[in-house]
Amino acid sequence: MSEKFYITTPIYYVNAEPHIGHAYTTIVADVLNRFHKLAGEETFFLTGTDEHGDKIVTAAENSGQTPREYVDRISGMFKDLWPRLNISNSAFIRTTDLYHQETVRNILSLVKEKDDIYFSEYEGLYCFGCERFYTEKELVDGKCPDHQTEPDVIKEANYFFRMSRYQEWLVEHITQNPEFIRPERYRNEVLSFLSEPLEDLCISRPKSRLTWGITLPFDEDFVTYVWFDALINYVSALGYPEGERFNRFWPHAQHIIAKDILKPHGIYWPCMLKSAGIEPYRHLNVHGYWNIDAGKMSKSVGNVVDPLSLADIYGVDPFRYFVMREMAFGLDSEFSEKALVNRLNADLANDLGNLVSRSLTMVHKYFDGVLPAPGPSGEEDEALRSSAVELVEIYRGHLNKMAFHKGLMAVWEVISDVNKYIDAMAPWVLAKSDPERLKTVICHIYETLRIIAGLVWPFIPASAEKIQEQLGLKRQGENCSLEDLKKWGLEKPVHPIRKAPGLFPRIDVKKKEKHAPAAARKEKPKKAKTDGGEPQGLVSFKDFQKLDLRIGVIVAAEEIPGSKKLFKLTVDMGEERTVVAGIKGHYEKENLPGMQVLLLANLEPAKLMGVESQGMLLAAGDKDGLHLMRPDSETTPGAKVK
Ligand code: MSP
Question: Which end of the chain has fewer surrounding CB within 10 Å, N or C?
């Protein structure tokens, strides 16, 4: 029976569009999910959206939609974003899902039966932004520390959860389980909060004030407080109480959050679980904040970082790599696009990308792409072999402690070792002086690359799989395991080694700077031309010949739900292809079938709004909009454009 692993992100409020903060937490969860798969565990990875409460109602009003229409739209944006960042979540929960609402009502009934819920009149200071009451002590200069606004005085009769009953138990639990909340600074923060008497938690809102929520099972006139509703998602998604998945995964639950929501997760949630008779989660992993210009991201300041723009400009994997390498989990980080470009150029293009390309070129040059059997070995080989094999456990140790940046640093040390090994062994000299020794050297480089590709997979899955494919490995992606990686010489390539274009095109920093303002500003950035690192250079005829341009005929055009710009087209070019084209608004979908078009047929496939596009239509743009390129007379579909 394999070990189990259950990882969750916060369910994000749908009152704002996804930004880099949401993307970071979700990428961390994705890296962990993939890492635990490599460790041979059975995993479940949950994310979703939090859709009830005052905030959502206000945001819906501001956008002129009903709450229902509004939550469907924004939740859809989150749901569509994740595949585009290659997020491997097993489920996506919405707090408006009926099964979730049912679970919330069941747990409320259970807690009420235990006499942990009572009715009482309360007057307090209420922050509508946080949707909670504040004590005087928690305010800073009389204002909410998060929203910098003065809270309103509200007097209301409400239902309360007897959280105070569980204070002693919680302190004991945290003390006995030092890893319950980590890193330590956040555990200490919770313990320090618990050193004062814990107040009971107001868990209802009268319907006279708010109707967009889950009605209490024991009083029709009230809805559930949004946090009491939201936290329960972590068990409702597993089918609590009877779901087989719940029994299988809940005992292994780990949450990832940022420090902003430490209190609900570190205090309310364990007390709620205890009251409902559910065992506590295993770990609460708390990370810091991405700051921009040394401050918080905010729509009004206009410094919200859009993860999709960054991924579009620099590539999904460079974006994922950057956030994981740059932030020390638990501490705040300053976001800078310049730092992203530097990491892409230095770590990905120079170190890893060059290593792969020079290694594969050598297998081709000296052995026609066929990996040779090793010849006689020497000391240098053994040194490389042991640092590569030992890396697996070093990496495992760092990732188990959420020290992702250290895990990556350890991999990059070995990348540097291989580069040095190549320089020291000088295969180009051995090719003439000692061809037998050259075989050993090539085998050692190949094996080390196999280990490196396996270990970077959780972070940069698409690039890692490309490397594994080029190496001709049978075990790719999640079919590889940490144990297999440690077995030196385990795999022989199943096909000749493939030479392929560079994995990570360099960005020309000077030219890129001219293209600022950056993606960070949520203004539509200009797309950087990244091919070959020569954005405005001339293209050789040889390069032009690499383009497979064909005539196609559109046979069908469909809407893509939620997309304002894209159509899904079926194009016949001798064979049928699905092509996603940004021509909505320029062409009526009814007029497209039958139209002949010009198609770039060997463009790397990419997923747009969840649809894989297997090519690109060519069009010219001017002040009147987009104009599709077409042959001037009827041409056979599939005909090559020269
Ligand atoms: N809906 C609640 C969570 C309920 S979970 C039962 C909520 N939603 S949120 O949309 O505000 O998301 C907060 C989370 O988004 C943070 O905990 C963090 O995971 C992520 N981030 C939001 N801004 C962030 C940064 N600037 N930096 C890093 N992560 C941040 O709270």
Answer: N
**Residue 139 pLDDT > 70, yes or no?**
yes
- CA distance linking residue 277 with residue 38, whole number of Å: 33
pLDDT digits (tens, 9 = 90+) for 264-296: 999 999 999 999 999 999 999 999 999 987 777
Query: 290: Cβ below 6 Å to ligand 1?
Result: yes
Residue 234 CA, closest ligand 1 atom number? 6
Distance 516 CA to ligand 1 centre (A): 28
Give yes or no for a contact between 464 and 313, defined as CB atoms under 8 angstroms apart: no
The DSSP-derived string for 473-501 is -SS-GGGS-HHHHHSTT----SSPPPP-S
Tens digit of pLDDT for each residue in 358-387?
999 999 999 999 999 999 999 999 999 999
Give, for ligand 1, the residue of 24, 32, 254 to mutate: max count of ligand atoms closer than 8 Å to Cβ.
24
Return the ligand 1 atom nearest residue 25 CA: 19
Domains and CATH numbers, the chain: 4-287 (3.40.50.620), 336-485 (1.10.730.10), 541-628 (2.40.50.140)
pTM over 0.85: no
Q: Which residues contact 529 (CB under 8 A, 6 or more apart)?
A: 535, 536
pLDDT at 481 over 50: yes
Instruction: Give the pLDDT of residue 584.
Output: 87
Residue 534 has pLDDT above 70, yes or no: no
Cβ(206)–Cβ(158) below 8 Å? yes
Q: Is the CB of 289 under 6 A from ligand 1?
A: yes
Nearest alpha carbon, ligand 1 atom 23: 21
**Torsion angle (degrees, nearest 10) of CA 385, 391, 393, 399:** -160
Helix spans in 401-434 (H): 404-425, 427-433
Residues marked as catalytic:
19, 22, 127, 130, 144, 147, 296, 299
Instruction: Judge if the beta carbon of residue 335 lies within 6 A of ligand 1.
Output: no
Query: What type of residue sits at position 177?
Result: N
Q: How confident is the model at residue 533 (pLDDT cuts 50, 70, 90)?
A: very low
- 155 and 250 Cβ atoms separated by less than 8 Å: no
Nearest atom in ligand 1 to the alpha carbon of residue 291 is 26
Q: Are strands 606-608 and 611-613 parallel, antiparallel or unpaired?
A: antiparallel
Residue 536's pLDDT is 36
Q: Which amino acid is at 359?
A: S
Contact of 344 with 322, CB cutoff 8 Å = yes
